[in-house]
Amino acid sequence: MVHTASYRILRNQEEAEEATQDTFMKAYQNLGGYQGGSKFSTWLFSIAYRTAISQLRRRRIPTASIDNLGVLEPNAHDPLAVETVDRSAALNKALAQLPPEDAAIVSFFYLEELSVEEIVTVTGLGASNVKVKLHRSRKRLLEILQRELKEEVWTLIGD
Amino acid sequence: MDAHRRLNDQDADKALLELFHTSGRIAASEGIETRILERIAHSNRPIAPASALIPGWVWATLAGGAVTLTAYLFAVATPTIEVGPIERALTNLPRFPLDSMLSSPWLLVTATSAIALLAMDTVLNRMRLDPHVKH
């Protein structure tokens, strides 16, 4: 969860792992600050988001090529694994074409299934801003994915 | 199937949800949990003392009561030759039925439970505030 959120912003495995460790450290050190006003996962995501964003701003090293982003090694004997890797690569490639902040928001919405209100809590952005970003990102993602996955998009929706 | 047709919002959401759930998770390298736990173990988290299970005023009251009781028992048990105002006041207090109290199982169980509870509170509180104790 936390690692994926960090990765969506930083797009670099090592940096995302560093941010993940920092996130858990901060969460541990500020555990007393969790008031229970939101879900614990939302609180943790807000730390992860802020940590990754500040790490992104401090970044001096160039990011990886989007062609190599998060591509998993497929198991050649398992067709399902190959298919999953293809999809994963296509999704990573599509997300890499969005601004890091927007990629994280989309991931919070579709992967972690946070509500708009929860994303507002996590990111500190306004609700209307989050909605606009979600709308634009979804449109952009679908354009890229339809190009990358072609017919498979329709298989995904059971058509 | 027409791959170029437009997805409506509902279909788009459904497709993206499915895609993110099957392929959207990025696995961290092996051993990250261990590294996180090691970092946490080596950190010195400032421990904010929380309120104790039994507040301090209860301890003070019990201590005061114990001292008063001990003093009373001592005064009652000691024969007084010269009767002064303090001795007279103590003598006028109702007789403390120590024998019958010590033979009451209810009282003994209550006293034992109270001692056990206070001891547990002390031990737990010390463990909680000890940074070397792993929770």
Characterise the protein shown here.
The complex is a heterodimer of chains A (159) and B (135). Chain A is mostly helical and 159 residues long. Chain A has one domain (2-156): Orthogonal Bundle (Arc Repressor Mutant, subunit A), CATH 1.10.10. In chain A, 69% of the residues lie in helices and 0% in strands. Chain A has 8 helices and no strands. The longest helix of chain A is centred in the last third of the chain and has 23 residues, at 127-149. Chain A is globular. Residues 64-76 of chain A have low confidence and may be disordered. Chain B has 135 residues and is mainly α. Among the domains of chain B are: 55-96, no CATH class; 97-130. Chain B is 64% helix and 0% strand. Chain B has 6 helices and no strands. Chain B is rod-shaped and about 100 Å long. The two termini of chain B are 58 Å apart. Mean pLDDT of chain B is 75; it is low at 1-5. Classes of the chains: A mainly alpha (159), B mainly alpha (135).
Shape designation of chain A: globular
Q: Provide the low-confidence segments of chain A as ranges.
A: 64-76
Topology of chain B as a string of helices (H) and strands (E): HHHHHH
Task: Please give the CATH architecture of chain A.
Answer: Orthogonal Bundle
Rg measurement of chain B, Å: 34 Å
Task: List SSEs of chain A in N-to-C order.
Answer: HHHHHHHH
> How confident overall, as mean pLDDT of chain B?
75
CATH superfamily of chain A, by name, is Winged helix-like DNA-binding domain superfamily/Winged helix DNA-binding domain
Alpha-carbon distance between the two ends of chain B: 58 Å
Shape of chain B: rod-shaped
**Low confidence ranges of chain B:** 1-5
Note the main sheet of chain B: none
Please tally the helical runs of chain B, counting DSSP H or I stretches of 4 or more residues: 6
Determine the number of helices of chain A (DSSP H or I, runs of at least 4 residues): 8
Q: How many β strands of chain B by DSSP?
A: 0
Count of folded domains of chain A? 1
Helix content of chain B: 55-70%
Largest sheet of chain A: none
State which percent range the strand residues of chain B make up: under 5%
CA radius of gyration of chain A is 16 Å
